[in-house]
Write a structure and sequence with these properties.
33% of the residues lie in helices and 23% in strands. By secondary structure, it is of the alpha/beta class. The longest helix is centred in the first third of the chain and has 17 residues, at 129-145. It binds 5'-O-[(S)-butoxy(hydroxy)phosphoryl]adenosine.
Length: 665
């Protein structure tokens, strides 16, 4: 139990630390069945599970043909002859942008609103499907005229504005591979992603608005591209907040002069079902982010199916709003692709929930009569903190389905969401998935599943999820272990960009024939699944994945730091918070607050503001095993204010006492 090796700590963590809290959860006996009304009008019923179980590939092939329009039909649903490299819908050809846009216009839906955009300062614009199609065609022509061809990579560093979706779909249309980098990442982080993918074009904006103030973006691109020998030839710049920008003649082009000026005629051709659609970088357990690769046919099929089934989407009447930024996978699957593939009307909001006031989200729900809201537990807990009198001022009666994603939702937040936001009638769908899975994997079906506050419930139809022990054996109900996926699924990652070995090693080596998700989970007495958080050195801050190792390397790159250890400590609002323990170099002075601020800013510069440690503790030593591995588990105990557990495997067992003494000072 006390060893800090991956296998045993994971189960130890799953059953001890989080286990206590979980014991309470598992005695949760509140259950919420769908109303008869909801069930009667639901898009899918209980029969889908049996249908999918009977023949998974055939089930997905049926969805692929129903949900997408193929330029060329596929001949085989799944080729799994070379695991873990899957091919879905083999031989098929499909165009993502045509499916998201043109075909809806051809089907007479050109006047339906695709996107209601709400800017932070209060400006708004609506795009119909016809208008959005035209914009994407222009962008496709503009990117092609800048030399972007099928297979080339395009880095996207944009705020939450419609041009972000237009850019992604324009890339997909011409077969270019987008790599969206979250606007909260620093120029260093941007450059390393540009270099890893060898991007030819960068699409950015002058800046955006953050809490009423202009916030720059292009300056980070300029800083990144000041490096020698990068691959970028052109930068397209959207004018969003009008702030001053430096200009690099020949390299930089205003969106208005390139995209807006381009021809609105562009014919979409089919791309192979396995053609790369995008790369999205995510943190792993090493210092180097992984470029998660997704391809076309399988990704579109599973995102569209789950969007329809899990949110009970009625595209003629629903107004859908997913609050995720396009910089994360949720903003890819459930903002840029699935809603448009399904012909839905969606809201897109640029800013923060408290700008200009703490009722902004609820004002938006009321204004657009949002019926499906998809957000993260950290947001819900923030609203709980602000108090129910704020949402109570707005008419939220249009809401009929509430989604949650990104981290486990605690039953208290679940109940508040249901009661205060959903008026005790809208079902909650807690959806478990990952950047790597591409689409939702575990979630209730709102017209079918009886839900329990805090449980993500069951695998979706066509998805083979299990909880196993260290030997890969399925655990019985009432037990915990590792979350795995036993069978390939359509939206699964196809690899890590440029690194097939790391792909195998990271996901397919812990258990030979199963995908290891990195999460701990427990099956309750009914077999329903409860997620327990990561079992590796990956943190989850406000639903965003951060690597302890990546932040540690950022810290040790500071001249004053000799060693650093980072842990994710439980935090009431953000789920986890970054806590850093650092040993200063002999010649560095412990200037108290000053060095702490300096180190936080340094991490902000190296990775981005989201990675800044909440707390930096200067300590004399770090707890290590005899083989030199830092025992983060003990540091987590300290950070969360617990007595430290078993420390007998420490190389020097006085270390914890030294740390405790230094923190009392
Ligand atoms: C990790 C994936 C999926 C899009 C956003 C995050 C955690 C995600 C849930 C949930 C409990 C969840 C897991 C997972 N996670 N959804 N409903 N309940 N945990 O994507 O950055 O790839 O992170 O987020 O730990 O492994 P991501």
């Amino acid at each position: 139990m006390s060893q800090d090796t991956p296998g045993s700590t994971a189960t130890a963590a799953a059953t001890s630390q989080q286990g206590d809290a979980l014991e309470n959860l598992l005695h949760e006996d509140r259950k919420f069945a769908p109303s008869a009304d909801f069930a009667a009008n639901a898009v899918v019923g209980a029969e889908v599970y049996a249908e999918a179980d009977a023949d998974r590939p055939a089930f997905w092939a049926k969805q692929a043909r129903e949900l997408l329009t193929w330029n060329k039909d596929f001949t085989q649903a799944l080729d799994w002859s070379n695991p873990p490299f899957a091919k879905w819908f083999v031989g098929g050809q499909v165009n993502a942008a045509y499916n998201a846009l043109d075909r809806h216009v051809e089907n007479g839906l050109g006047d339906r609103v695709a996107i209601y955009f709400e800017g932070e300062p209060g400006d708004s614009r609506a795009y119909t499907y016809a208008e959005l199609t035209e914009e994407v065609k222009k962008a496709a022509n503009a990117f092609e005229s800048l030399g972007v061809a099928k297979g080339d990579r395009v880095a996207v560093y944009l705020p939450m504005i419609p041009e972000a979706v237009i850019t992604m779909l324009a890339c997909a249309r011409i077969g270019a591979v987008h790599s969206v980098v979250f606007g909260g990442f620093s120029s260093d982080a941007l450059l390393s992603r540009i270099e890893d993918a060898q991007a030819k074009l960068v699409v950015t904006a002058d800046g955006t608005y953050r809490r009423g103030k202009p916030s720059a973006l292009k300056s980070a691109v300029d800083q990144a591209l000041a490096a020698d020998g990068h691959s970028v030839q052109n930068v397209v710049v959207v004018k969003r907040n009008g702030q001053d920008v430096d200009w690099h003649e020949g390299r930089d082009h205003w969106w208005a002069d390139t995209v807006e000026a381009a021809s609105p005629e562009h014919t979409a051709v089919g791309h192979d079902s396995e053609h790369p659609l995008f790369i999205l970088y995510t943190s792993g357990t090493t210092g180097k982010p992984k470029g998660i690769l997704h391809t076309t046919g399988g990704f579109l099929t599973q995102t569209a199916y789950t969007h329809k089934a899990v949110f009970d989407l009625h595209p003629e009447t629903d107004v859908y709003w997913c609050t995720a930024d396009i910089g994360w996978v949720t903003g890819h699957s459930y903002v840029a692709y699935a809603p448009l593939i399904n012909g839905a009307t969606q809201v897109m909001y640029e800013g923060t929930p408290d700008s200009p006031h703490q009722g902004r989200w609820w004002e938006i729900v009321e204004k657009y009569k949002v019926s499906i809201l998809y957000t993260a537990p950290t947001a819900i807990r923030t609203f709980m903190k602000w108090g129910r009198d704020i949402p109570d001022k707005y008419d939220l009666s249009s809401l009929r389905v509430l989604g949650s994603v990104g981290e486990p939702i605690n039953p208290e937040a679940w109940m508040w969401y249901r009661d205060v936001i959903g008026g005790n009638k809208a079902p909650i769908v807690d959806t478990w998935w990952q950047t790597e899975t591409g689409a939702q994997m575990i979630a209730p079906l709102p017209g079918v599943t009886e839900t329990k506050p805090g449980s993500a419930q069951v695998a979706l139809p066509g998805i083979a999820v299990d909880v196993v022990d260290e030997n890969g054996a399925s655990v019985p109900n009432g037990h915990g272990g590792f979350l795995v996926i036993r069978e390939p699924w359509p939206a699964m990652l196809r690899g890590i960009w440029g690194d097939p070995e790391r792909f195998k090693e990271t996901y397919w080596s812990r258990f030979e024939t199963m995908y290891f998700a990195g999460d701990g989970a427990k099956k309750d007495e009914d077999g329903d699944i409860w997620l327990l958080g990561r079992v590796d050195d990956v943190m989850n801050i406000s639903g965003h994945r951060l690597s302890t190792t990546e932040i540690e390397s950022a810290l040790v790159s500071h001249p004053a730091v000799a060693e650093a250890a980072v842990v994710g400590a439980a935090d009431e609002t953000t789920g986890q918070a970054v806590v850093a323990f650092v040993i200063l170099r002999g010649d560095a002075v412990d200037s108290g607050d000053e060095i702490v601020q300096d180190l936080r800013n340094h991490v902000g510069k190296e990775i981005g503001p989201i990675a800044k440690p909440k707390i930096v503790l200067v300590v004399p030593e770090l707890p290590k095993t005899r083989s030199g591995k830092i025992m983060r588990r003990l540091l987590k105990d300290v950070a969360e204010g617990r007595d430290t557990g078993d420390a007998t495997t420490l190389a020097d067992n006085t270390v914890m006492a030294q740390i405790a003494a230094s923190l009392k000072k």
